[in-house]
Amino acid sequence: MRLREDFTGFLLDVQQPLQPLHQQRGDLLDLLVGETTFGARGFARMKGKLLGQTQQLEFGYLARGDLVTGLQQRIDNQTNQPYLTETNLASTLGDIGAYVAADLKPVSWISLRGGIRTEVFTYTVNNLCAVQDVAHPTVPTGGASCLTAADFGAHVEANQVSSTAAARFLPRAALIVGPFQALTISANYGQGAQSIDPIYITQDVATPFATVTAYDGGVSYARSFEHWALSARSIGFLTHLDKDLIFSEVQGAGTTRTGWIVALRATGDFFDESANATFVKSAYDDTHLLVPYVPDIVVRSDTSVFAKLPVRLGGHPFQGAVTAAISYIGPRALPFGERSDAIVTLDASATLRWRDYSLGLVLTNVLNSQYRLSEYNYASNFQPFLPQTQPSEPTLAPMRQFTAGAPRGIFGTLSITFGGV
Amino acid sequence: MRGRALSTALLVAIPACLGTTGNHIVHFRGAAAGPADAVSGAPLEFTNGAGWHVVLRKATVHVGAIYLVQTLPTSGGGTHPCILPETYVAQVVTEGVTPAGIDVDTLSPTPQYFPTGGQGTDLEAKAGQVWLAGGDIDAPSDLTPILDVQGTADKDGSSLPFFACLTIGTNRTETPTNSTEPGSNPICQQRVVSPIPADLVPQDGGTLLVRIDPRPFFVDVDFSQLALSSAKSRCSFDGQLPIRTFADQSTDGESTDTASTALYSHLRSAGTQYEFSWQPPSP
């Protein structure tokens, strides 16, 4: 994957003593990431009868390897050439785990599910641009990013290899009671781990994982009627992350997210309705201030109406379907006590199907709403893009930034299904 | 209808009840002025450390922008970069005017406002910066007059009219003392007066005021060292030529005379000559 992005304009390229004299050259980042992933999973499950109920025991394993290369450079606005290498890493990551899980039913209306997984994470990181600064150079560096000289001219290679490993025990448990009159009650607990960016790996230093602890509980309903089926669920959750990453690329303090999800689906002979709403409060554990950029409310509804049409061709009927999707994202918390705008979008589509052929028309943002897809509050400086007749000093204090949402889009689709539906 | 309004109100009100990320963005006005004890329309008189009785009839300083930062940079850590790594709390910059910034009459205590407003956050600021430039802080050349001064200095019965029109551009080159650090003396460091101690919290609707006192500029200036000159300058001049003129040229910090060196050095020093304060909005 290659990604070019510029969030700050002309802010970060501050003159450093070792560099030749220069003005701000621009903050355009050019990221090139390559990854090869391979892995394997397997499990063995045993069933047996106990207390008149079927009990299950499962053993499993997982193994995964990642070969990752990451290059991040800053591009000169005038020459379009890279002038600074920020990171250049070649990493080998390993993840080997084994688990045991059980699904126990003491009675027919109670299920106890749980297990424990142990995982070993290994990191080997070759930093190909390890030396980027030197306190006492003996020769000018010429502004080079990846140096091969340490203090007082001592030679060092440009790369440095670091490796470390760590293990984690990750338990999970679930209690399911029901169904009673189509109602089921559930409660869940689990732990997970989030590995960190390879740039933070230090030789023989214990790898700081981000540990995720999650709780949730709720009630679900599922029932079929003569011509339609209804399912619904209402779940409260709490998720704690002991080290959270936010947009500022700083691994911050622990955070806790509490919320509620309500979802409903109704499916009939000629319609399908799916709606859900999520309410979340995300806050830092130490200050209880909100985590920025996390929406408090997200509501989504997808409605589809379909039927066979009274038109036939070659003895086969046409089938038509019309769908509409409405999304609402509530005002998101932004840094410095600000709030973003809410986002409301309407998408629609219509399809006509005959045998294995399907013709579709898709409209996104039907109302052609002008909305801010993402909003931020941070310091940036795009003043150099102003005409030379309007000089200005840089903007260094936080200001609102946003990316615009896409305008109305109209797309056509043609699909052919081979081998039948 | 009532149910729809209620649900809409809930969808809007609920986020507001869920908390904040802390602090707030604020908008305010920016202004600069002379010392509070100056009298509008009257010259500024004082006696400097070299025994000269100075009467300033004109003293204008060009300010390109002013900034506040959250923490005071530690001293003894070497030269600070022009853009500090600390969090910038507030800024007053100008757009759409050439040159950028305003010319501040430092003989007047009345606030002179920047044409565009400032903005920042309500974080406590411990230091400030005054940028003395007419455009890009890193541009090698800038012909904007930064200091425009006219006055008279008297000592031991000798009265010397003097004039200064100082710029900061290619005329202020500083050769790096260490060839391995070619970027150690960028021109931007000559244009940024920093760090100026401050202790204030920006608020919505108030005014960020920087007072510039020209008297410390001349604290140890010996006016007898100034040469007579009839050369034209970029500043307006309404006196008689020739006149004792501060040199607008220095190399590695040294001018042709120690008086010019001292004036230029004190112009850029973050001492008592610059003071930040906050004025709340008028009731």
What can you tell me about this protein's structure?
The complex is a heterodimer of chains A (421) and B (283). Mean pLDDT of chain A is 91; it is low at 247-251. In chain A, the strands form 3 sheets. Chain A has a 16-stranded antiparallel β-sheet with strand order 1-2-3-4-5-6-7-8-9-10-11-12-13-16-17-20, with no helix packed on it. In chain A, a hairpin with a 2-residue loop joins strand 6 (160-180) and strand 7. Chain A has no helices and 20 strands. With 421 residues, chain A is mainly β. Chain B has 283 residues and is mostly beta strands. Chain B has helices spanning 2-17, 188-191, 258-267, and strands at residues 25-33, 44-47, 53-63, 65-69, 88-93, 102-105, 112-113, 118-121, 125-131, 147-155, 158-166, 192-200, 207-212, 227-229, 243-245, 274-279. In chain B, the strands form 2 sheets. In chain B, strands 1, 4, 5, 7, 8, 9, 12, 13 and 16 form a 9-stranded mixed β-sheet that branches. In chain B, strands 2, 3, 6, 10, 11, 14 and 15 form a 7-stranded mixed β-sheet that branches. The chains are: A mainly beta (421), B mainly beta (283). Chains A and B meet through strand 11, strand 14 and strand 15 of A and helix 1, strand 5 and strand 8 of B.
